[in-house]
Fold this sequence. Notes:
The protein has helices at 79-85, 123-136, 176-180, 190-202, 215-228, 246-253, 262-267, 273-287; strands spanning 7-13, 16-24, 65-70, 73-77, 92-100, 109-117, 138-146, 149-158, 161-167. The protein has eight helices and nine strands.
Amino acid sequence: MAARATWKGFLRLGELVCAVGLYTAVSASDRVSLHMVNRKTGNRLQRRFVDAETGKVVERDEQVKGFEVDSGDFIVLEPEEIAEVTPKGDKALTIDSFLPCAEVDDLYFDRPYYLRPADESSQASFAVIREGLRRQKVAAVASAVLFRRPRSLLIRAYDDGLIATTLNHDYEVRSAQEAFEDIAEVKMEPEMLDLARHIIETKAGRFQPEAFDDRYDDALAELVRAKMEGRKIAPPKKSAAKVVSLMDALRESAGLAGGGDKKASAAQAPAKKGTDKKAAGKKAAARKPAARKPSRAPTRKAG
């Protein structure tokens, strides 16, 4: 595997142990990266820490972490003190329990990693764990010390390997009840639900992340290219919002405005299963710019 493992250790299920590596599954490295620069000189800016009271720059060897117990009152924690209480890892990813995949609440998902055997001798043990998860349709809950912090992970079978997703702690996930408590109960007419069902059925598709557009990143890339080429770029046009009733909006969305339009309904019918993925792929490819990222060029300094 060409990628470099971010963590190496052992996957442990009772007495069954195999050497594994974690590989980053999600990366932002391909996004357009912007830096803060001096408008006058074009030079990149450096971040400096300044004392809030004196206004003086504090050098790295004088910087320590602290916990605020009161406004402006901090308990200083020395690096040695933090290191002393930090849990020590044993390089083991220990499976503690299993649960049905249907019971997994993805609200707790944090960051996914590819998990694969680290050497040839571990492939048989790894395969047993992977196929056990796949055939029983369960996920494994495991614990490990990753990057100096104890973490819980959810491990699932995925293609020829495993996906290990770090989980958020319960205290980190905000209450859904608090978020939804002031949503009013709405009485809906049967026709509204029928129209909603029709819209959903005619727009039925499949999960195809390759067809998702990052319009913000594409717009930044095009802006950088335009400035490098000395041309202006036109801002996107704002669409005028129409004020319509909820029922009219549903009817128009369903292609049934004005008493019903069978042609519109037929045109919105979902493609056959064998062709919908191919068509979506062609559509996505057509939308992508020829060169998504601006080519690297020497930094130009003003004056």
